[in-house]
Every structure is written in C-alpha cells, then in structure tokens.
Amino acid sequence: DAGVIQSPRHEVTEMGQEVTLRCKPISGHNSLFWYRQTMMRGLELLIYFNNNVPIDDSGMPEDRFSAKMPNASFSTLKIQPSEPRDSAVYFCASVIATEAFFGQGTRLTVV
Amino acid sequence: GENVEQHPSTLSVQEGDSAVIKCTYSDSASNYFPWYKQELGKRPQLIIDIRSNVGEKKDQRIAVTLNKTAKHFSLHITETQPEDSAVYFCAASKAGGSYIPTFGRGTSLIVHP
To answer: What is the dihedral of CA B67, B73, B79, B81, to 10 degrees?
Structure first.
C-alpha cells in the first residue's frame, strides 16, 4: 500500500486563482480529514468525511474553501479565489480505528 | 468542543538529556491521547498513544503519562539523540464512535549533538 497520496506536492499560484488539492486515502479507511498547517496555528482541522459524507466543516475558514469526496478513493479541497493568507501546508489524513495516516502534504504558496 | 494546549512551543536540549512535552485538554470525555512526530518536510506519524484506563505507557526511550483528574498528559523522551529532532504533536479524542483528534500546536524539539 502506498499510503495516503496527495497531489500536487507543491503549488505556487497567483492571488485570485482557483486551487484544487487532491487526496487518495488508504483503501478500506472510512474517515478522511483535511488539515491546514501553519507556524502560527499548528494543525487545524478543516473538514472531515465519514464514509464519503461530510460530517463537520466548521473548520473551513471561509466560503472560498470547499471540499468533496465523490467516492471512497478520492477527495478534493478547493480554494476559489485563493489569497496570500491561504499559504500553508495542507494535509489529508485517512483514518482507521484510532490511527490517522497522513499524506505527504501539499505546500501551497499564493503570491 | 475539545481544546488542546501544548507547551513548550520550542525545546532545545543537548544530546543525552531528557525532554518533556506537556499537553492539557478540556473535554473530560476524551479518552484517547496519541502523539505524532513530524520530521522536517515530512508527514506527521503516530509514535505512541495512551488510553484513559492507564496512567503511563513506555516504548523504549519514549513514555507518555496521563493525569485524568488534572486533564493533562505528557511525552517524555530519555537519552535524546539528534534524530529525535522534530515537531511533536499531542492530540486528544474520544475513541469509539467517530474518531476526531484535536491536535495541539506542536513542539519543535531540537537535539544538539
């Protein structure tokens, strides 16, 4: 198993552009989390899905952020329009029982 | 909701010394406390965990302690080595039902050779 796969690893985009981050969870895991990591705030939970259904998106900072999980093997986090303050590392994690397996993260830079 | 505070934010020690990272949580219903290690440029990975039915757990040079009454738990690393240098995150959650860990802000541990 290759683990949780995120793409792209790095993304540099201009302010105002749409950004889509992608995640492939580990097969058989029934929960998926999106986190944002910054120096100031650490790991912030943005949204989580259970069996492909969004359960809690209260961590999504603004309406500019949206997430989908159309099937058990794929999820996206979209930012439209992007702003410089969105620059961070975004992690996807899939969960089985009580262990969260993180992807390698996407480092987003909005200039 | 759950709130997890973690201290210190940075910790610098000499190789061979011990390191202690402390966390507090707010929700008395939390009963599962994992610790994750994130090496530079890499993903967080689970290194040890503790459940509320025990007060201490050890795994070689690392140990975790839990005080349910005070709602705090700690990570202890003995005989630190340069490869222990990383960011460590504590988390609290309820095991059973939906597992939703709330993470602390992280502690950057630097072990000087």
So the answer is: 170
